[in-house]
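Table S2 (continued). Query chain:
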Amino acid sequence: MPFWPSPISTRDVAGSGVRPGWPTARDGRVWWTEDRPDEGGRTTIVRRAADGTHRDLLPAPWCARTRVHEYGGRPYAVTPAGEVVFANLKDQRLYVLGENGEPKPITDEDCRYADLLVHDGQVWCVRERHAEDGKVTRAIVSIPLDGGEAREWATGCDFYASPAISPDGRHLAYVCWNHPRMPWDGTELRVTRLSGVSGGQGSWTVRGGPAESVLAPAWKDDSRLYLVSDSSGWWNLYEVGLQGDDARALHPAEEEFTAPPWRLGGMPYAPLPDGRLAVLHGRGDLRLGVLDPGSGTLTNLDVPHTGWDAALATEGTSVVGIGYAATTPRSVVTVDTTTGEHTPLKRDVSTLPDPAYLPIPRPVRVPGPQADVHAFLYPPHAPATDGTPPYVIFVHGGPTAHADTALDLEKAFLTSRGIGVLDVNYGGSTGYGRAYRDRLRGQWGLVDVEDTVAAARWLAAEGLADPGRIAVRGGSAGGWTVMAACCRSDVFAGGVSYYGVSALGPLVAHTHDFESRYVEALVGPEDPQLYATREPLALVDGVTCPMLLLQGLDDPVVPPGQSAAFADALSERGVPCTYLAFEGESHGFRRTETRAAALAAELAFYQQLFS
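Corresponding output:
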């Protein structure tokens, strides 16, 4: 098919990913992180002064990124004096960045650090240590800002997150959990006394357990905490005493008040001076509102941003976050909670195309074999349309994650050329309650595939898509679903996998510690016979459609051998397959040249499929 002409180029898409994140507000100033795709994909820290001027604080080659859990998280914190403490990607050491712009190291090179908090002249954080024998241990530690030995405050658990110190400085609250659970399965909120006690003594569990996901603690005062718990089946906000007594839901609702904590350091709510809370809540996308903890009244703020990342900060009556909408790219935004006035400080995309080329998502529910499937429909969108179009089904990664409705130039790149997009939140996705995400427990490779196939059939049955021209694409866990769907079904004209999982045994043996037991919940305990009924590499004989596989060669999450083995198996069977590997890229492409080359290859693949 001849694609429609479009003003959106591969370079436009590839260069758009500055990915602003992790805002902090203090003394009239705002800090956040930004990626630099044209500088090898490094991450810098930007500060906006009170007069509105912006300044990059980290010149090349410095890169503010932590590798804790490999996915990292918030890589910096701001001191009361306005200095910045950050983790540098290359050596993972913590540095203090003074006003002179010269980073000064305060830790050694044998550890990783995340979830940074500055208090009383020290950095409090999660420390991750990798021993020579491969064993990984973590602890919550404090490190003097002028350097020196770290002091351990919480040890013995496999994972830690969200350190928070009480206003009087006497108690430390934090979240912890152990293998094989993931943080959305079951965690504990614990408190440790800080009166000269270390090594985990003087600690107790406030709330949580194997079947309750407790996240994002924050102190209300010296004796009570806020937290998010899914004990009701939804991640709702609670207030609780130090001994776990008098727990109270602040606004019970069948909505989520947080997102899954793949990365450390997020905060889905923040206090305001009058005792109210700026909160995020909703199904799928999270809206911004103000909650009165006393009355339970929740009022949404009238802003054009329909969704927000789970990383809020407040100063005075203003809240700072990363907001987005279908025609608004992810942006650092300040919102005055008293007037509703909102000010964008930085956008992910500096120059937007003509709005006529931007697709508007429509939430749909697709009948699935077990339950309705949530999805967002993006019809081809351009000044002129005609005929029944081809479609590409997007499958998000995770799989415990979800597709949102933020402006995405990758989608616009396709829809502006006459290719529709259906973004599927298959069973197991977050944003729709615990029961919906638990649909994938023990069923990975089945439920996600069934829901994706059902979405393709629904497109055809509704007359929205040409049934012979429906493709599927996804990355990471989404790449697994793409490969598995092409193995188990003949509804797709082709499949595109970005750094996807093809075999479970090698994944379990070689993946990083954070996800090393994840497959147990998704499929089951290690069993070659069971794995052979699920993994795409064992089912490759079922593939009859062409495939495009793209992979970073420095990927610590899904090693390159996963894509390469699947490509080899397809080639041996004579199935058309293109395998593209990129030097220097990890799990998620960051460099402009890589992203442009990958998207150009994908477009050429669809041109051939849909002609």
